[in-house]
Amino acid sequence: MDTAKLLNLREFEPLARETLSQMIFDYYAGGANDDLTLHENEAAYQRIFLRPRMMTGMAERTMHTTVLGQSMKAPVLIAPMAYMMMAHPDGESAMSRAAAARGIHMVVSTSATTTLEDVAASAPDGLRWFQLYLYKDRDAARDLVQRVEAAGYQGLVLTVDRPYLGRREGDIRNNFGLPAHLQMQNLPSDASRSGFAAYRSLLFEDNLRWSDVTWLKSITRLPVLVKGVLRGDDAQLALIHGADGIIVSNHGGRQLDGALATIDALPDVVQAVDGTVDVLVDGGIRRGSDVVKALARGAKAVLLGRPLLWGLALDGEAGVGRVLDLLIEELDLALSLCGCRSLSEVTPDLLADHKMILQSTQ
C-alpha cells in the first residue's frame, strides 16, 4: 500500500497486522511472557516531560552527529532485526537502501535472510554495522568477522542479552519457523539449513563472559559495541574488556520480561561510562520527541526497530523511508520547539526530571 498518507509511526502497525500472516506478525510484534517490558519501553517515554527554551533563534538547525567518530545525518540508526524477507521480498536490501538514502547507519543482523555481502552491495555508499551473536565455534566466528570486514562494514555490535532465548509464547503457540523459501544467510551453510532449533540451541554461545569482548577485539580492527546492557556496573565491565561503545537494550522486551525500560536504564549507564565512550539506546522510540528525551538523558543516538518492519511490510523500501522521514521530521520539529539549534544543545535541563538526573551524576 501507499504509506505516504500515514502521519505517524503508530499508524503503521495495525495495517501491517492486516498484511502479514498471524505467525509472522506475532514473531515481529511479540515480547516475552506477559509483554511487560515490551509495553514499558514505550510507556516510559510518555512519563517524561520536556522543559523547552524560548527565544533562542533556532531558524537554522542541524541534526548531524557522530557516533564512534562516524558521521551521521541524524541520531537514528536501524536496529538489528532478523528475517526481514518475511516482511517483504526485498527485505534487508530495501532497509539498507532506505538508510543509505538518508545518511544513517543500518545494523545488519546475524540472522538476516540476505547475505551481509548482498546487503552491502544493495547500497554501496551506505554505512552499516554488523550485529554479532557469538558462535560457540570460534573459528566460525572468526570467519564471519572476516566476512564483515571484507564487505566494508564499519562496526560490530555484540549482542550479550541472549544466552538463552526468552519465552515468546506467541511463537510457541504458532509453532514459529522460518518459511521454507528463506534461510539465515549469514550462518554456516549446514546451520542455515538445519532449522530454527539448531539456530537457538546449537550454534550460538550460551556461556558468554566479559572476556569474550576482549577476544572479539583481538580478532578485528573494527570498533565493537556491546548491546544489551541495562546496568552501570556492566557498562564499566564492558569498557574494562575493551568495548568501544554501549547500546542500552532489553532486546525489545523479547528476553527477560520485567526488565527495566531502556530509557529508565539509560542514566545509570551514561553515568558509569562518564563520557569515555558513546552510549546508544533502543526500545520504545515512536516520536521525534522520544529521541530528544533519549539524547537529553545522555544517549548519543537511538536505534529504531519494529516500526521499520511495519513500513517494510506495507510498502517495501518506500515504506521504510516513510517511517524514517516521519521520525526525522518530528525530531527536527521537536528540536525547534525545544529551542535547540543542534544536538549539542539537547541537555538534561530540557527534562522535567533533570534535577534527579543531575543528582545521579554527582
Offer a few descriptive terms.
362 residues, globular, single chain, two-stranded antiparallel sheet, alpha/beta, TIM Barrel, 12% strand
Describe the protein:
By secondary structure, this protein is α/β, with parallel strands linked by helices. The protein has one domain: Alpha-Beta Barrel (TIM Barrel). It is 42% helix and 12% strand. It has helices spanning 12-19, 22-29, 36-46, 91-101, 116-122, 138-150, 169-174, 189-192, 196-203, 211-218, 232-240, 262-273, 288-296, 306-337, 354-360; strands at residues 65-67, 70-72, 76-78, 105-108, 127-132, 156-159, 224-229, 245-248, 278-282, 301-304. The strands form 2 sheets. The chain has an 8-stranded parallel sheet. Helix 11 links the parallel strand 7 and strand 8 (245-248).
A few lines on this structure:
The protein has 362 residues and is α/β, with parallel strands linked by helices.
